[in-house]
Design brief:
Helix content is 58%, strand content 12%. The chain contains 17 helices and eight strands. It has helices at 8-11, 17-30, 33-48, 54-65, 71-82, 100-119, 130-133, 136-143, 150-173, 184-201, 219-233, 247-257, 267-283, 297-309, 329-337, 355-364, 371-387, and strands at residues 87-92, 125-128, 176-179, 208-213, 237-242, 288-293, 319-324, 342-348. An eight-stranded parallel β-sheet has the order 1-8-7-6-5-4-3-2. It is globular, with a radius of gyration of 20 Å. It binds flavin-adenine dinucleotide. Flavin-adenine dinucleotide binds at residues 180-181, 211, 213, 215, 242-247, 263-264, 266-267, 270, 293-296, 322-324, 345, 364, 371.
Length: 389
């Protein structure tokens, strides 16, 4: 496969020189792990103490990784990216709110985005997080087979109703719906619920997508079993394939509580597991659809290769590539320029409420994770190219 992701002219075609300089500065800052750790601690403190740091956050990380405070703020970004063939997934990224009012808000926002998506070709998917619709502890209790109190049962029933309402809306409006994956100790209950939704709404085609976090060594087994059940019950499987964003938390909890970590033994093992899942789904594409959520160039090339080998059209609606806004534009924009389906998650929400999301991104971009040096090299190359013109 031709190495298309090195084309920085295409990658940064929407970025002005000033925007490139700003991105360079930001990635330089978050390249330092100690700085990210200190920055995270100071920001968390400042937010809890109600210090006026929102302006500073907006000017630095927020505007780089988010589309705005509201869904409407995001629309100019959505339209701009779509001029280059890159679609968006509007992602209401408020996290860690644990009351009924916020759960209803998140559901209503998802319903609204499904309506938006119906009207806008640039929005092929909607998305939500299971813990956006219900308390983490409820999911955890189900996973650990701890009995609910009557009050908790009533609360859980409302979570199920929220899931069903958005999945039904997605089905009625024919908009694919991605459901994010979270920590392993709440994920079993979410998986069961999403499977129920697939049974109900994926009878004709994959509309409801769950997420497989392939840093978990048990996920191939899960996928194969789900496939058996899908064959028996006659439903399609939609899956977002990611590596997984909670590795440190998973390893720490396992060590603390003394159980075997659910995370693969090495990065290479995760990579192999990811590729195995892509291969498995590609081999059963007659009943499956893939959303490959990754910034890994090798994984993306591999999927492109497989499509070519199998003679699958680049615009086949069963295969989408996905990246996060503010990251790996070299992958997204070059995929789109070459005719593939690609969408970027575009997070939005009030500045202080999207902090957990932003902190995950900053951590993922430290020099330890290795993503930043790639971003910096690409920006440097593009700056040089522009100066040389
Ligand atoms: C569109 C999109 C949607 C996403 N949705 C979700 C979601 O719903 N849930 C979620 O959890 N994450 C989600 N993510 C984040 C994703 O899981 C990864 O954290 C992120 O994309 C980095 O992985 P990568 O494949 O891009 O690339 P890479 O940089 O190649 O891989 C980094 C990843 O490899 C794994 N890894 C790193 N070191 C080790 C090690 N020592 N041992 C084992 N594994 C290791 C970790 O998962 C790490 O994040 C999403 C990402 C995208 C782009």
């Amino acid at each position: 496969m031709e190495k298309i992701f090195n084309n920085t002219q295409v990658a940064f075609s929407l970025k002005s020189d000033t925007e490139l300089d700003r991105a360079y500065f930001l990635f330089k800052l978050i390249d330092s792990e100690p700085l990210v750790r200190i920055g995270t601690a100071v920001t968390n403190f400042a937010i809890k103490a109600h210090l006026p740091v929102e302006g500073l956050i907006r000017a630095t990380v927020f505007d780089r990784f988010c589309g705005g405070i509201s869904e409407v703020d995001c629309l100019p970004v959505v339209d701009k990216m779509f001029t280059k063939g890159v679609s968006s997934v509007l992602d209401y990224s408020v996290e860690g709110k644990e009351d009924e009012e916020h759960f209803d808000d998140a559901m209503n926002m998802t319903l609204k985005i499904i309506d938006f998506a119906k009207e806008k070709k640039a929005l092929p998917f909607a998305v939500f997080k299971p813990t956006g619709f219900g308390r983490f502890e409820l999911y955890q209790k189900i996973g650990e087979r701890v009995a609910f109190t009557p009050q908790e049962q009533a609360e859980w029933d409302r979570v199920v109703v929220r899931f069903d309402r958005v999945c039904k809306a997605a089905y009625d409006k024919d908009i694919a719906l991605l459901i994010d994956g979270e920590e392993s100790w709440m994920q079993d209950a979410a998986d069961d619920l999403v499977e129920e939704m697939m049974i109900k709404y994926n009878k004709q085609k994959p509309i409801i997508f769950n997420t497989l976090q392939m840093y978990r060594w048990d996920r191939m087994d899960y996928l194969r079993k789900l496939h058996q059940r899908a064959k028996a019950d006659g439903f399609y499987i939609g899956m977002k394939l990611v590596r997984g964003a909670y590795m440190e938390k998973e390893n720490n909890r396992a060590a603390e509580k003394g159980y075997k970590s659910p995370i693969c033994e090495s990065k290479e093992a995760t990579d192999r597991n990811y590729d195995a899942a892509v291969l498995y789904m590609m081999e059963h594409l007659n009943t499956m659809a893939i959303f490959a959520g990754t910034h890994n160039e090798d994984s993306s090339y591999q999927l492109m290769d497989m499509m070519q080998q199998k003679g699958i059209d680049k615009t086949d609606s069963r295969i989408w590539f996905g990246q996060l806004y503010g990251m790996s534009d070299n992958i997204s924009f070059n995929l789109a320029a070459n005719g593939y389906n690609v969408a970027k998650y575009l997070p939005f929400g009030p500045v202080r409420d999207v902090m957990p999301y932003l902190i995950r991104r900053a951590e993922e971009n430290t020099s330890v994770a290795g993503q930043t040096s790639r971003e910096l090299t690409l920006i440097k190359t593009e700056r040089k190219r522009r100066k040389g013109k």
